């Protein structure tokens, strides 16, 4: 009976580095899972991910390539790994779903290599905000939003720098000083009486 040989001493630190690298990859994978799990849901805890966010992970991280994996494949895998009555998956089910997609995406590789490759696509990524409306700076819009060209009552709603005054710009604020509105010598009575 032969004894199992231990790895040479020179390989020991290398194996430890590989194990630490795998742990770091899994930690960044879990971090990405949490970021995508809470995306778009203010009540989410980051422990469970819904189908919409699962599809977003696959789309944003380029797991969906349009050839080997399509959005339909992503939805089918989500339905496979979740519990029958559940609408969400946890982190372990997430990894199982990635294994399913990895074997389909990387057909020439072993299961471990394929899983590692698909994890590298996702690890460290965050949800992107594609399609968020940005302020346009076209000349027509610029002319309409230039507060220096406003006239009448609209002009009074902005200060010299062009910043809105808020409520004080919309409503006439009553001053309880005891003087009429346009009185020029307001505040001088006390100085005259004390002399």
Overview of this structure, please?
The protein is mainly α. Helix content is 49%, strand content 2%. It contains nine helices and two strands; from the N terminus they run αβααβαααααα. It has a two-stranded antiparallel ribbon. α3 packs across α4. It is elongated and about 100 Å long. The termini are far apart.
Oligomer: single chain
- By DSSP (H or I, 4+ residues per run), the number of helices equals 9
Estimated structural class:
mainly alpha
C-alpha end-to-end distance: 119 Å
**Helical amount among residues, as a percent range?**
40-55%
Strand runs, count: 2
Backbone CA Rg:
32 Å
Give helix and strand order, one letter per element, not per position. HEHHEHHHHHH
Biggest β-sheet: strands ordered side by side in the sheet: 1-2
What does the overall shape look like? elongated
- Major sheet attributes: 2 strands, antiparallel
Low-confidence stretches: 6-18
Mean pLDDT: 79
Strand fraction band?
Answer: under 5%
